[in-house]
Each structure stands twice: as structure tokens, then as C-alpha cells.
Specification:
Elements: E1 9-12, H1 16-27, E2 32-35, H2 66-69, H3 86-99, E3 106-107, E4 112-117, E5 123-127, E6 132-135, E7 137-140, E8 147-148, E9 155-157, E10 160-163, E11 180-184, H4 188-197, E12 205-209, E13 216-217, E14 220-221, E15 224-225, H5 237-252, E16 273-274, H6 278-283, E17 288-290, E18 293-298, E19 300-303, E20 308-310, E21 313-316, E22 320-321, E23 354-356, E24 361-363, H7 369-381, H8 390-407, E25 417-419, H9 420-440
Parallel strand pairs: 1-2, 1-7, 2-3, 7-23, 9-18, 10-21, 11-12, 11-21, 12-17, 13-16, 24-25
Antiparallel strand pairs: 4-5, 5-6, 8-22, 14-15, 18-19, 19-20
Helix pairs in contact: 1-7, 7-9
Bound molecules: flavin-adenine dinucleotide.
């Protein structure tokens, strides 16, 4: 089969997900263009990305260890520390693209502004260069950490109210020295920023406000990188979860020991917050805790326990909306609670030429998650995989939803939560089943090559 006969694909985004999807398409001779809004690859890991979409801050080190984030066909440098800095990741992604000769296929500084599915199934993709191009399939890799979710507090605030997305360092965009700062939220950004600003020579007072407590997990366990420990796949998932929960309680102790609010859930029933610094800073008394903010009152902030404090800056580390501004069709968009049910976190039943990659919060890593997903996409586009029919897909989505809601507390934060290894094992089984379905259908291409308008 020549590449001419294969469907022509549009990839939106050249962050880690987009570049690894592009690499897989190239490996299989599938023609594609990759559109990137910024002037370089790397997405979130490009600090001060001129496209304004990166949530990186100056001190950010990845929470996933180097042992778990590497692409399977491109090792990370030996000299890297266990938890590399964002600048090292940025170099790694640039080198990956150059090593595999992908750079020429990426249209930089080109924002996709509209992607419309035609009645015949083809996608018309319009970009900021003013051109509209036709594609047979669309792979969406636009990331889900760039559209800040701001809390809606009643009242007016005289100080600075900002999202963690805008935070670069203790002096930019706000000089935090001597300021009374409230960091809202105890996810990973919240813990990092609070740890950083709580140093005595920076904020005059650092308060963390959160609706509920969290389990702060260790990055090292008995001197070794924690995320390298894997449960043997033969241990049932419920048993494995219980063992991990027991371990965290024993190893870390209760969160109240460090002065933190008690979590209302068990370890691993929320997307983990991991930090070696935060508990120490809290234990040193440099971080105070408050419940949720209930009102803004000029120079003061009111909390759910009735207390009121004078505050200069509020940093909301309150997460992100999942957004696809290039889609108009509500069927392709998540609801206001970040819910967008997809088969294997990728495909919408009834739409046979659209894939959302990297639209997950996988543990322990999202960096190389789309690399695994793109195996299924490439097999599909080359006629070696067929998914179940739409009813079968819906059934699978329901089962995955039930497992997820039984495991994590209900929150927009958890609608795309998955575990990396079980997900990949499940996908491998599904690919084997789908290979049989494809063979039974004569390995015909499920997405015909019809987009003749070349770039
Ligand atoms: C503070 C922070 C810490 C994190 N820490 C970790 C961690 O420890 N481990 C981990 O695995 N993950 C972490 N992440 C998650 C991070 O999102 C992923 O590691 C990774 O960047 C996801 O890659 P992606 O390609 O899916 O998305 P992104 O990295 O967001 O890349 C998306 C790309 O798409 C481009 N784009 C978007 N819209 C368009 C458009 N319309 N047209 C053209 N181009 C477009 C953007 O310019 C960008 O380059 C963290 C995220 C944040 C914010």
C-alpha cells in the first residue's frame, strides 16, 4: 500500500502528544501536516512560550521521574537528574523532532482556528495563515493545561487575583516580596508555588486555601524514585490499591501531623499531589491553612470558617477547562464539568475519523501517553485495527466511567483520570481484538483517502 492511498491527517498541536503522534504517522507512511500555534515544539514545557499557552513556571521540575517519561524509541540523556527541569524537557522534545526528521512537517506559528467536519466526513481545517485545507482524519493534541479555570467568588477584591497559569516566578508577574499571599488549591502547581513563596524572604504571609485536604505523596521511597515501583500486573487492581493506600499512610503518616487539613478521601482516590518540599515547609510553620474562600471584601478575604484576613495577592491554582476553540459542534466539546466520554479516551462513537490524544490525566505520566495511543490510531488508519460498533464503544465507555467514578471523588479534576499501565494493557488487548475485526473486514481502510487538496 503506498502512502498516496492512505488517508491524509491533520495533527493539531506539537507538544509532546502531537510530536509523538506525528512520529507514528511517519513510521507508517501516513501523510500528515502538524499545526503548531507556537514557534517551537514542546507545548507546556516551553517556558514563556510566546503563544501564551504554557503553564510552566521558572522553577518547575517535572513530578514524573525520567525513568517513566521517556518516549520508548528515544531515551532521555543519562546525565539527567531523576526529576528534570522544564528546560531539559524542552531540549529533549526539540531533539526528538530533529532526530526523527519531523520538523519539516510542522507548520509553526500557525494556530488552527476552525475544524469542521463535512457531510462526506472530510475535515476542513482553517488556520491563522488564512488557508483552509482538507483532511481525511483529525488528531487533536492541543493539550488541556492552558485554559485557566478561575473560581467565581462573590464580591470585589482590591488586590491581585491571578491564576497559577500566569505565575512565572516570585517577581513576575507580581513582586511577591512582603506580600500577604493566598494560594488556592492543593494540586501540584499549588504545592509548588506555595512552597516557593513561603520562604521567609518572599511572602510576608503564605496561606493555602482549599476545599478539602489532599494526600501529599513522596517522590522518593526509601531513597529510590517512587514512581519506578510498579505493582505486578497479576495483583487484582482493588488489592493493589489497598496495598498502596496502606503504604502511603505508613510511610507518610497522617497529613494532620504536618498541620495540613485532613483529607476526606483515601490516598489515590484523587489525582496525586507529590512534593518533598511542601510538608517540610508546612511543618516549619511557614504555611498556614484555611478552608475555601467564600467572599472577597475589598482588601480582605473571607473563608468558609468565618475568618477574615487582609490579603494582597490570590493565586488560584484551580485547574483548567478542557477546551477546543476550533470546534463549533457541541457534540465534540466537553460539558461544563469537563466531561467528554470517549472510547479508550480517544474516539467518539459514530465519528470514525477523529482522535483526541493526550486527553487524559494518566498516572504517572502524560508526557509519553499519546505515544501509546498513537499505536491504535496508526493501526486503524492503515486498516489493521477496527473498533467495535458505536453501541459496543458506548458500552465500553460506560464501564470505564463506572470504574473511574468508583475510584476517584467526583470533580472536574477527575473526569479524564487514568492509570498508565492498566490503560496500556487494556489497549493492547483491544488492539488484538480489533485486529481480528479488521481482518474479518478484509483489512479495508476504514477512513478512505479523499482529501486531495494538498498544502
Ligand atoms: C504546571 C504543570 C506541571 C505538570 N507536570 C507534569 C508531570 O509532572 N508529569 C506529566 O506527565 N505531566 C505533567 N504536566 C502535564 C503536561 O500537560 C504534559 O506533560 C504535556 O505537556 C502534555 O502534552 P500535550 O502535547 O498533550 O499538551 P501541551 O504540552 O499543552 O501541548 C499542546 C500544544 O498544542 C498547541 N496548540 C494548542 N491549540 C492549538 C491550535 N488551535 N492550533 C495549533 N496549535 C495548538 C500548543 O501551542 C502546544 O504546543 C504538567 C502540566 C502543568 C501545567
Amino acid at each position: 500500500m503506498t502512502s498516496q492511498q492512505l488517508p491524509r491527517v491533520c495533527v493539531i498541536g506539537a507538544g509532546p502528544s502531537g510530536i509523538t503522534a506525528a512520529k507514528r504517522l511517519q513510521d507508517h507512511g501516513i501523510p500528515f501536516d502538524c499545526f503548531e500555534a507556537g514557534d517551537e515544539v514542546g507545548g507546556n514545557w516551553y517556558f514563556k512560550n510566546p503563544n501564551g499557552m504554557s503553564a510552566c513556571y521558572q522553577s518547575l521540575h517535572i513530578d514524573t521521574s525520567k525513568w517513566r517519561l521517556a518516549f520508548e524509541d528515544y531515551p532521555v540523556p543519562d546525565e539527567w537528574p531523576d526529576f528534570p527541569h522544564h528546560a531539559q524537557l524542552f531540549e529533549y522534545f526539540k531533539n526528538y523532532v530533529d532526530h526523527f526528521g519531523l520538523r519539516d512537517k510542522i507548520l509553526f506559528d500557525t494556530l488552527v482556528t476552525a475544524a469542521e467536519r463535512q457531510p462526506d466526513g472530510r475535515w476542513l481545517v482553517t488556520a491563522s495563515d488564512g488557508r483552509t485545507r482538507a483532511y481525511d482524519a483529525l488528531i487533536v493534541c492541543n493539550g488541556h493545561h492552558w485554559d485557566p479555570r478561575m473560581p467565581d467568588y462573590p464580591g470585589e477584591f482590591d488586590g491581585v487575583l491571578m491564576h497559577s497559569h500566569a505565575y512565572n516566578d516570585p517577581f513576575d508577574p507580581v513582586d511577591m516580596r512582603g506580600k500577604r499571599v493566598v494560594v488556592v488549591g492543593m494540586g501540584n502547581s499549588g504545592l509548588d508555588i506555595a512552597s516557593e513563596l513561603s520562604q521567609r524572604f518572599l511572602a510576608a504571609r503564605l496561606t493555602v486555601s482549599a476545599r478539602r485536604g489532599v494526600w501529599v505523596l513522596p517522590k522518593y521511597v526509601h531513597g529510590a524514585v517512587g514512581d519506578r515501583r510498579r505493582m505486578p500486573p497479576w495483583i487484582p487492581r482493588k488489592v493493589a490499591l489497598k496495598m498502596k493506600q496502606r503504604f502511603v499512610r505508613k510511610f507518610r503518616g497522617e497529613m494532620e501531623f504536618y498541620g495540613l487539613p485532613a483529607p476526606d478521601h483515601k490516598p489515590f482516590e484523587a489525582h496525586p499531589s507529590a512534593s518533598e518540599e511542601f510538608l517540610h515547609r508546612a511543618g516549619c510553620g511557614d504555611i498556614a491553612f484555611k478552608p475555601a474562600i467564600t467572599a472577597l471584601e475589598g482588601p480582605r478575604v473571607r473563608f468558609a470558617d468565618g475568618s477574615v484576613e487582609e490579603v494582597d495577592v490570590i493565586v488560584c491554582a484551580t485547574g483548567y477547562h478542557i477546551s477546543f476553540p476550533f470546534f463549533d459542534d457541541p457534540e465534540l466539546l466537553p460539558d461544563s464539568d469537563n466531561r467528554l466520554p470517549l472510547f479508550k479516551q480517544m474516539m467518539k462513537p459514530g465519528i470514525d475519523n477523529l482522535f483526541y490524544l493526550g486527553l487524559a490525566q494518566p498516572l504517572p505520566t502524560l508526557v509519553n501517553f499519546a505515544e501509546q495511543q498513537s499505536k491504535l490510531v496508526a493501526a486503524y488508519l492503515t486498516g489493521r485495527y477496527l473498533p467495535p460498533d458505536p453501541d459496543g464503544m458506548r458500552e465500553d465507555i460506560r464501564a470505564a466511567e463506572t470504574a473511574r467514578t468508583g475510584r476517584y471523588y467526583d470533580s472536574p479534576r477527575h473526569t479524564i483520570q487514568v492509570e498508565f499501565e492498566p490503560y496500556v494493557r487494556d489497549m493492547q488487548r483491544e488492539m488484538a481484538r480489533g485486529a481480528k475485526r479488521a481482518a474479518a473486514a478484509g483489512n479495508a481502510l476504514p477512513v478512505p483517502a479523499r482529501a486531495l487538496d494538498r498544502v
